[in-house]
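Entry — protein

Goal — fold tokens:
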Amino acid sequence: MATVGENIRSRRLALRMTQEELAAKLYTTRQTVSNYEQGRSEPDLETLKLLAEQLDTDAETLLYGPEKSAERNAGAVQALTRAEAAEAELARTEEAARKRLEQSESAAAEELARSESAARKLERTVQSERREKRRMAVVIVAAAVLAAVLIRLLMVSVLGNLYLWDQAEAEVIVSSDPARYADYIGGAALADYRDKLDMDEGIFPETINGAGMSAEAFQMVYYDPWDPQYLCCLTMRYEEDTYRRELERLAEYPSTEYLGYYGVTGFNEAYRPAGFDASEENAYRVKMLGSAE
């Protein structure tokens, strides 16, 4: 392989240039150029570039000769070709990767859209089920209320019919026998007449057939259509002493004020109240003749 000096000399001669002419273009001496060509010294890199420029070649040709430079150029071309091929392959790989990424992104977007659509559909289904449950709850409540009303109306109707039937079937017992006074009034009365819904019978005399007294009229009415009803009317005639004692007994009785619970008015002025017991549920009234006569 030719040396650097030989390559410089060969290229100088090819251009028909003397050592003096080349030295002038390099701003150096002819001896320096001769030393380069004889191999006594070698130019540095900057000088080598300047030599290549003045000799109309490149630095590789001066360093390695034209044949070796061509081989190196061919290798460079091949390397460049391989680099370009690698670059093209890389570009194809990147393009394929980009397409796969786009396809993945598209598939992910489609999957997301399907998921969102399914979520919206599920939400609509849940809302529809909730509305249906609310409607069913309203229907059930309305049906329960209607059933309760109907049952109540039925019970009222049944109880009303039972009451009417009981009224129609209930026996009205009327007794006008003064001898049976003790059967209806007082603690020794018959069972159906004994408690009279816890009414106080103390306003009635214990007996109506004692000395100095007689019953002119007596009537006891008992009627039990649903709850027991009692009505007793008694008219007595007393001798003077007995009459006075009865008035004294009634005077000691804790009479109540008559508040008009039953709207009774129009009493005969010849009579005056001697004792009175009244409440919202019950009323007893005793009227005594103004004199023993």
Observations:
- Residues 172-289 form one domain.
